[in-house]
TrEMBL record:
Protein name (Swiss-Prot/TrEMBL): ABC transporter permease subunit
Superkingdom of origin organism: Bacteria
Segments traversing the membrane: 57-75, 87-108, 129-154, 174-196, 203-230, 250-272
Organism name: Intrasporangium calvum
Record carries keyword Transmembrane helix: yes
Keyword annotations: Membrane, Transmembrane, Transmembrane helix
Length: 278
């Protein structure tokens, strides 16, 4: 492969050019004087979550699982379920699978080697990283709002079609706890993605490490005390009863979140900003 280098054309050289030769003209318009706006970075990162085949099919799979769960509940016991039960049917699949969206938001560029383009257009990696983080959190919040809407639609359908009296009783603390459950899972996925920057490794370790620790905490008696503080699966379950959580339960939740969410995110950001882009 040959490379052609074009030197600047001086006035003398220009006069010696053939009449048919054209001198490149300066592109009109103002030159940028500021960096890429953060809002544009955020919009780009949100679009990346559905632009890739893996991200698109993952979201389709989550939607299909939720649809199947709601359909089963609609026909089971003639749909006589409380709104809160319908909501659990929509939030649990998201809580399990949406963290993979957070992992893909970080690892896709490193696995597909498109990070060089991203960090060439925006060399300040911290802005790109925070756009990924905030984008994943916004996607989680939108998914949570959608799950509430779907649960309400199916519950109302059971009231209208199945002749169910309906039970809309649910308090704000339960909604807050379910939302925190989903968003903390996404943040944990982002942390694992930043640490490893490899999609298969991040997904496997995200599911294996916390599960293995939970199993050890249940099987080994002398680890039970530590597991009550460091088992994220155990401490996050209390979020569904957030209105009755004690001070000790909040402390246990904070400790486990610091170990499994805050620490991976902090260390992952530090490593992501110093990793070599290839």
């Amino acid at each position: 492969m040959s490379t052609t280098v074009t030197a600047p054309i001086s006035p003398t050289t220009e006069s010696a050019l053939p009449a048919t030769a054209k001198v490149p003209e300066r592109i009109p318009g103002e030159r940028p004087t500021a960096g890429i706006p953060f809002g544009r970075l955020l919009a780009v990162e949100l679009r990346k979550m559905v632009d890739t085949r893996a991200g698109r099919w993952l979201l389709i799979g989550i939607g299909a699982i939720i649809a199947i769960a709601l359909t089963i509940m609609f026909f089971n016991e003639s749909g006589h379920h409380r709104f809160e039960e319908y909501l659990q049917a929509t939030t649990m699949p998201m809580a399990i699978l949406l963290p993979v969206v957070g992992i893909l938001a970080v690892t896709a560029e490193w696995s597909q080697r498109t990070g060089l383009v991203t960090y060439t257009l925006e060399p300040r990696r911290s802005r790109v990283t925070w756009a990924k983080f905030l984008g994943a959190m916004l996607a989680g919040a939108a998914a949570m709002a959608l799950s509430i809407a779907l649960a309400a639609v199916v519950h109302q359908a059971a009231i209208t079609i199945q002749g169910y009296g309906g039970d809309w009783s649910i308090d704000g603390d339960t909604l807050l706890g379910a939302s925190l459950f989903v968003l903390l899972g996404i943040a944990q996925g982002l942390g694992f993605g930043m640490l490893l920057r490899n999609t298969p490794a991040a997904i496997v370790l995200y599911f294996v490490l916390p599960t293995a620790w939970a199993i050890l905490g249940d099987m080994v008696s002398w680890l039970d005390g530590a597991a009550s503080w460091l088992d994220l699966n155990r401490t996050m379950n209390a979020l569904f009863l957030v209105d009755s959580m004690s001070g000790e339960q909040w402390a246990q939740l904070g400790t486990s979140v610091a170990a499994w969410v805050a620490l991976p995110v902090a260390v992952g950001m530090w490593m992501l900003h110093r990793a070599e882009v290839k």
